[in-house]
Design a protein that fits this description.
Helix content is about 35%, strand content about 20%. It is of the alpha/beta class. Bound molecules: flavin-adenine dinucleotide and NADP nicotinamide-adenine-dinucleotide phosphate.
Length: about 425
């Protein structure tokens, strides 16, 4: 008998899980990848920056997994809305949750909810054309913007703010968004780290790209780039060298300016009706290595604050969830009998796309060893259940129609290989004319 597995979420973790099931299983296996959006690939489509085209090409690898005869894509199906955990356990022998981390972590400071204080998750969704965010959501009308956090997402956000619309024209950024980027009034971007250059989370390759921006001068203060001696890993040494080289560089008079700042933590976002400033406190490390304030403050006259301090997962209805780690508790991927987890939902929002491959392989090893020879589910048909509930999943062939419509739009607009369609209606119209 065939082993039938449902994978929930079609990001890298979900698709690597499907691939590992097909590759590792000695028995026949069928995998349904259920995804709440009509489109696959998770953050590869709606997270990876539009100008990082070589990384986006990982979608080509993931596509080949969805085209395996043992794998089916069912888009527009949400766990918790169209199907429950109990439904899945009736239809399948096992379920793997791989729904990622969709929301922002909070700063917990006054003014965080003022208009103009924006979570990086929303801003990234906006420029990536995610159907959850309307293209008219943001107008870049402030000359100064602060980006809190010095991780790779902050670097992506800074790059998109610093580039011109012309530089982004050949990417898949939705056309309305590109026009808004073209109207941007942003002149100064402040990227703020609460610790020193040696603690920054961005990686060297991504940092170097900021130094190569054609439209922005990058500035670092020598006193903030200074690092007390230490035996740092190669990546960190590289970051420090790059930052220190920028500290001795003269601005070339480019239209925009990026200030990379360190040892400053946000204490209040100021403003009555909307963001009018950001109050920062200088920091140092305590003897225990914790970030503490020094009582010295400065205020930046920014009209927008982008909070890029990490993503976090949300609980799935009926699935165990730890509020402490904000992940699904598991042992080598096992959650409970016949329930498994992979990717960011399993280990938290860290790591590059490839990290999810070994992570998924571990989960699948656990699953296959637990279920060897056993077929406890598969009593009902998920197709029948969805049809009874009036849900018509988006098939892989329909997704290819959406892709084709995006390529056609790019041709019509004279822009690159594809331009994202925005909104569920537009996507469904493209695949079900
Ligand atoms: C902004 C950003 C940029 C990044 N850029 C890079 C990069 O350039 N290079 C790199 O190597 N890594 C990058 N990463 C990291 C990489 O994207 C992650 O490691 C990876 O996407 C995590 O995979 P995942 O499958 O766990 O989650 P996701 O990719 O988030 O996939 C989860 C999927 O589950 C779906 N889903 C959610 N809830 C449900 C539900 N209830 N029912 C059904 N489906 C659901 C979602 O729609 C989504 O498609 C980036 C991350 C971010 C946030
Ligand atoms: N090109 C790429 O490869 C790429 C692109 C994007 C994302 N990614 C990956 O995706 C993952 C997520 O990236 P991310 O940037 O969201 O997260 P991240 O790497 O964890 O960085 C988060 C940043 O926010 C800061 N921060 C957290 N809480 C804060 C607070 N209260 N006040 C001020 N600063 C705070 C952190 O500082 P502390 O260190 O002091 O906590 C850190 O600088 C990472 O693994 C990343 O490498 C990769």
């Amino acid at each position: 008998m065939t082993l039938r597995v449902a994978v929930i979420g079609s990001g890298p973790a979900g698709i690597y899980t499907a691939e590992a099931l097909v590759k590792q299983s000695a028995e026949d296996v069928e995998v349904d990848v259920l995804e709440r959006l009509p489109t696959p690939y998770g953050l590869v489509r709606y997270g990876v920056a539009p100008d990082h085209t070589s990384i986006k090409s990982i979608a080509g690898y993931l596509r080949r997994v969805l085209e395996l005869p043992q794998v089916r894509f069912l888009g527009g199906v949400t766990l918790g809305e169209h199907l429950s955990v109990a439904d899945l356990l009736t239809c399948y022998d096992a379920v793997v949750y791989a729904t990622g981390a969709m929301v922002d972590r909070r700063l917990g400071i006054p003014g965080e909810d003022l208009p103009g204080s924006v979570a990086a998750t929303d801003f990234v969704n906006w420029y990536c054309g995610h159907p959850d965010v309307d293209p008219s959501r943001f107008t870049l009308d402030s000359p100064e913007v602060a980006v809190i956090g010095v991780g790779n997402v902050a670097v992506d956000v800074v790059r998109v703010l610093a580039k011109t619309a012309e530089e982004l024209s050949a990417t898949d950024v939705p056309h309305d968004v590109l026009e808004r980027l073209g109207d941007s009034q942003v002149k100064a971007i402040h990227m703020i780290g609460r610790r020193g250059p040696e603690h920054a989370k961005f990686t060297l390759k991504e940092l170097r790209e900021l130094g190569a921006l054609a439209n922005a001068d990058v500035c670092v203060r020598p006193e903030e780039a200074a690092v007390l001696g230490g035996d740092f890993p190669r990546q960190v040494r590289g970051n420090i060298e790059v930052l220190q080289s920028w500290a001795s560089r003269e601005p070339a008079g480019r239209p925009r300016r990026l200030d990379v700042r360190f040892w400053l933590r946000p204490v209040e976002i100021l403003g009555a009706e909307r963001v009018e400033g950001l109050r920062l406190e200088r920091t140092r490390l305590s003897d225990e290595g914790r970030v503490v304030g020094t009582g010295e403050y400065e205020t930046l006259p920014v009209g927008m604050v982008l909070r890029s301090v990490g993503y976090q997962s949300v609980p799935l209805p009926g699935v165990p969830f730890s509020q402490e780690t904000m992940t699904v508790p598991n042992v080598a991927g096992r959650v409970r009998e016949r329930e498994y987890v992979a990717g960011w939902l399993k280990r938290g929002p860290t790591g590059v796309i490839g990290t999810n491959k070994s992570d998924a392989a571990e989960t699948v090893r656990t699953l296959l060893s637990d279920l060897a020879g056993a077929r406890p589910g598969g009593l009902a048909s998920v197709d029948g259940l969805l049809a009874e509930r009036g849900v018509r999943p988006v098939t892989y062939a329909e997704w290819l129609e959406i892709e084709a419509a995006e390529a056609e739009l790019a041709r019509t607009l004279g822009r690159g290989e594809r331009v994202k369609l925005v909104g569920l209606d537009a996507m469904l119209r493209a695949c079900r004319p």
